[in-house]
């Protein structure tokens, strides 16, 4: 009887893991119920290509449909809570193994480290030589339309560039809600060298500024409503111009 139960269990896991499309559907539902339109948009495919894998998942009672919304069954959620983070982690590290093995992830909180697989769709990018010393170019200059449509910008600043504070003032004056987390080093540099600009920035009603006082090598993170840019420093605690850029809802959720 035990062998039979194990075989049945493997059948459910096989249904979940051995088909990329079924796995993508289940991963999408893992983070909330979805309509057919939601799934089409998230997975970027026509509904006809999703009907068969959804049928298979429903036959295995891993997902259910109610009021035209698909969701995980109780069994599906139990399996996913154990399987999905592991699969996502493997996909994330497998996509850019050299990058991830060289990163210092020691300061990331445990709950974020456990869900780092949400960054699987992110790409490793290197700034153009013309922009090597220009801050936040991937988020702002190269995404002007998306930034214009955003309502809020969130930044955790670890790297210092003299132009940074002027960029922050410019976008805050344009009406963006801005949440800033500065390391003590960045805050002190601004306070000592850019006191007038810092005073102006702090006086704006749509800006909330916090100072991170702990002596840890934390990643630099920039988030708009559409994109996230993360800089994990290398094992030596240095910025080596390798940046992680993503735009899907899971990467944005992780970075929040």
Write the topology of this structure.
Layout: H1 2-17, H2 20-30, E1 34-35, H3 36-43, H4 48-59, E2 63-66, E3 69-72, H5 74-95, H6 97-101, H7 110-114, E4 123-125, H8 144-149, E5 152-157, H9 164-173, E6 177-183, H10 184-193, H11 195-202, E7 207-212, E8 220-223, E9 228-231, E10 243-246, H12 249-255
Parallel strand pairs: 5-6, 6-7
Antiparallel strand pairs: 1-3, 2-3, 4-10, 5-8, 8-9, 9-10
Explain this structure to me?
The protein is of the alpha+beta class and 256 residues long. The chain has two domains: 12-92, Orthogonal Bundle (Arc Repressor Mutant, subunit A); 98-255, Endonuclease Chain A (Endonuclease, Chain A). 47% of the residues lie in helices and 17% in strands. It contains twelve helices and ten strands. It has helices spanning 2-17, 20-30, 36-43, 48-59, 74-95, 97-101, 110-114, 144-149, 164-173, 184-193, 195-202, 249-255; strands spanning 34-35, 63-66, 69-72, 123-125, 152-157, 177-183, 207-212, 220-223, 228-231, 243-246. The strands form two sheets. Strands 4-10-9-8-5-6-7 form a seven-stranded mixed sheet, sandwiched between helices. A hairpin with a 4-residue loop joins strand 8 (220-223) and strand 9. Helix 2 (20-30) crosses helix 5 and helix 10 (184-193) packs across helix 11 (195-202). The longest helix is centred in the N-terminal third of the chain and has 22 residues, at 74-95. It is elongated and about 65 Å long. Mean pLDDT is 84; it is low at 1-10.
């Amino acid at each position: 009887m035990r062998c039979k139960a194990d075989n049945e269990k493997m059948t459910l896991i096989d249904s979940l893991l051995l088909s990329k499309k079924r796995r993508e559907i289940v991963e999408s539902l893992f983070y909330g119920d979805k309509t057919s339109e939601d799934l089409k948009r998230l997975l970027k495919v026509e509904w006809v290509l999703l009907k068969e894998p959804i049928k298979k998942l429903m036959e295995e009672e891993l997902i259910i449909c109610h009021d035209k919304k698909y969701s995980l069954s109780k069994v599906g959620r139990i399996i996913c809570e154990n399987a999905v983070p592991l699969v996502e982690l493997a996909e994330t590290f497998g996509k850019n193994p050299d990058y991830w093995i060289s990163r210092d992830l020691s300061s990331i909180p445990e709950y974020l480290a456990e869900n780092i697989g949400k960054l699987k769709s992110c790409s490793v990018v290197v700034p153009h030589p013309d922009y090597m010393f220009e801050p936040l170019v991937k988020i702002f200059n190269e995404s002007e339309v998306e930034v214009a449509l955003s309502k809020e910008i969130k930044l955790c600043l670890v790297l210092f560039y003299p132009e940074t504070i002027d960029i922050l003032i410019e976008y805050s004056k344009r009406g963006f809600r801005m949440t800033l987390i500065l390391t003590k080093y960045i805050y002190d540099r601004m306070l000592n060298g850019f006191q007038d600009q810092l005073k102006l920035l702090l006086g704006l009603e749509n800006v909330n500024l916090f100072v991170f006082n702990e002596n840890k090598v934390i990643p630099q993170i920039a988030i708009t409503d559409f994109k996230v840019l993360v800089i994990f420093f290398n094992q030596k605690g240095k910025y080596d111009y390798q940046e992680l850029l993503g735009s899907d809802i899971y990467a944005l959720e992780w970075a929040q």
